[in-house]
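Researcher: Next entry: FCD domain-containing protein (Novosphingobium ovatum).
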Amino acid sequence: MSPTPIDPPALPLPGTAPNGTEVANWIRQRIRTGRFVPGQRLVEVDIIRQTGASRTKVREALKRLEGEGLVAIEEFRGASVRSATIEEVRQIYRARMALEGISAGDFARYASAQDRQRLIDLQAELDLCVEQRLPDKFGRLNGEWHRLIVEGSGNLQIAELLQRLNVPIHRLLFESFYDEQRLRTANADHRAMVDLIMAGDADGAEAAMRRHVEAGFHTLSAIESEFYR
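Model: Predicted structure:
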């Protein structure tokens, strides 16, 4: 199921100033979970107070997020959370369909025995999340499941491209995106792909992943009025 949220590392312990990467992760996570909403100003002084970072590191983080398309920086107005249009998201998902599809096929062809076993183990954890109705945990494991397939395929270029493509998809609250029926539907897709991968059906795995990512976009389209403007 898409999106594939990534849990960034926590900020350093109190008394240790975070670097630009850690501040960017902190801001990014709050955008993804809706604590910072599209159009909201990101006030440097507030971020400094909440993270303990220097002004230089906060500005470095904001510039990084601007480059990722997640933040807009305007002269005299400062930084704000950038809105993503549904058309932008559609284009991103079309690219992801192709790239993640290739990854699934290559994973079926080339993944190590260790990665294959990890995929089986992750799928068992996802199954348990569905049965126990744990949407937040499902969201985290879903991200790990997708990343394992991409990384296990052995194509580093695709991994880097997908990391950038995932970034602008934000403000997806798990209680809406990962409701019970969506969890079951997405997890059924996952199980089918695991079966295809373990059977060595690379073409089938690629086609199944393409359908799975496309289904994620249709889910977003259905809740467009709530999450996009």
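Model: Note for the record: Confidence is low (pLDDT under 50) at residues 2-9, 170-175.
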